[in-house]
Write a structure and sequence with these properties.
With 345 residues, the protein is α/β, with parallel strands linked by helices. It folds into 2 domains: 206 residues, Spore Coat Polysaccharide Biosynthesis Protein SpsA, Chain A, CATH 3.90.550.10; 118 residues, no CATH class. 45% of the residues lie in helices and 18% in strands. It is built from 14 helices and 12 strands. Strands 3-2-1-4-11 form a 5-stranded mixed beta sheet, sandwiched between helices. Strands 5, 6, 7, 10 and 12 form a 5-stranded mixed beta sheet that branches. Strands 8-9 form a two-stranded antiparallel sheet. It is globular and about 55 Å long.
């Protein structure tokens, strides 16, 4: 199983994260090429890398291109048989790449996640799942990782913290959509893959620690909401959007209420997301036509893997209150989804 693997990292003022991440990747003997694409860092990351990690290939961007576009630039220089995109705030166990290669050889034409764990050992993500209205959440978050877990899980979406696939899959999908400056580029990638009958597999034996804190600010809210709506408009068929219109309106009302409760800057971010979609309508409609032309499966296959439960537990500090609201909101979505539309509950 002597395969060549390219690992691509994007840095933006990420010197402290890379100091932990790079040695853990280098402990994986199959990481034969490591690429760091720097998004115009201001913390001397590039010079520090040249001094401390001269074996790493570094490509500098003259401005911050965003995560997906920077990953795509790294792919232009990738020479491995397998390409792995990873966040710099991850720390890898030494057997991650051999396990992921083994998984890739068992399941052809797939996107692969390792088990992504929190520093306390709890699960951060076994891949991602998606609400029927586009809100994405981590699968298995907060559960206890166990060696007795089923080795392979099959989530709808891949988690962008670490994505591994044969180079032919990355090339077939043409990498990430660079329009997704931040957030949900992994959701878009996964759904475009699903339309082409390329599933996601999570190998729970390959473990990566993700040093990540869930935080929300107006700018993040803007990108999450803009990209959530953009993804629905690009991926779903017109008839599906029509049939889900009541569910979509409920979520719009909920996100607008969230913005109002968090102050004027969040409300401005909410309005900006609508404004961008309207002003770029011709662009995303053209892109939609290209994506729909690749379709090999119907929306029914996607919807059956989506959920009606919102990830309130990840957004609210009060778990009991989150469970209360989820109970009633899920019932509302159950009534809003029309007969004949089957969604995982």
């Amino acid at each position: 199983m002597n395969r060549l693997c390219t690992v691509i990292l994007v840095s933006y003022n990420s010197q402290a994260d890379l100091a932990q991440c790079l040695p853990s990747i280098m402990a994986n003997p199959m990481a034969t090429q490591i690429i760091v694409v720097d998004n115009h860092s201001q913390d001397d990351t590039v010079q520090w890398l040249r001094t401390h990690f001269p074996q790493v290939e570094i490509y500098e961007n003259e401005s911050n291109l965003g995560y997906g576009a920077a990953c795509n630039r790294g792919m232009e220089h990738a020479t491995g048989e397998y390409w792995c995109i990873a966040n710099p705030d991850t720390v890898w166990e030494p057997d991650v790449l051999p396990r992921l290669v083994e998984t890739a050889e068992q399941f052809t034409d797939v996107l692969i996640n390792p088990a992504i764990l929190q520093p306390n050992g709890l699960i951060n993500a076994y891949g991602n799942t998606m609400h029927v209205t586009g809100i994405t959440t981590c699968a298995g978050i907060g559960d206890v990782w166990s060696a007795s877990d089923q080795r392979y899980r099959f989530p709808l979406l891949t988690s962008g913290a670490v994505i591994f696939a044969h180079r032919s899959i990355w090339q077939r999908l043409d990498g990430f959509d660079p329009e997704y400056f931040l957030y949900l580029e992994d959701t878009n990638l996964s759904l475009r893959a699903a339309l082409q009958n390329i599933p996601v597999v999570c190998d729970t034996r390959a473990r990566v620690i993700h040093h990540y804190d869930l935080k929300m600010c107006p700018e993040k809210f803007y990108w999450l909401e803009r990209n959530r709506l953009l993804t629905l408009l690009l991926i779903l068929e017109q008839e599906t959007l029509r049939r889900l219109r009541l569910s979509l309106l409920i979520t719009e009302a909920a996100t607008c209420f969230f913005a109002l409760m968090h102050g004027p800057r969040f409300w401005v971010a909410r309005l900006r997301s609508y404004a961008w979609l309207l002003s770029h309508k011709r662009d995303w409609q053209a892109k939609r036509r290209v994506i729909q032309a690749t379709r090999q499966v119907s929306d029914t296959v996607l919807l059956e893997q989506m959920t009606l439960e919102l990830p309130l537990g990840q957004l609210m500090g009060n778990l009991r209150l989150a469970q209360f609201w989820n109970h009633w909101l899920t019932k509302i979505y159950q009534r809003a989804v029309p007969e004949g539309v089957h969604v995982c509950e």
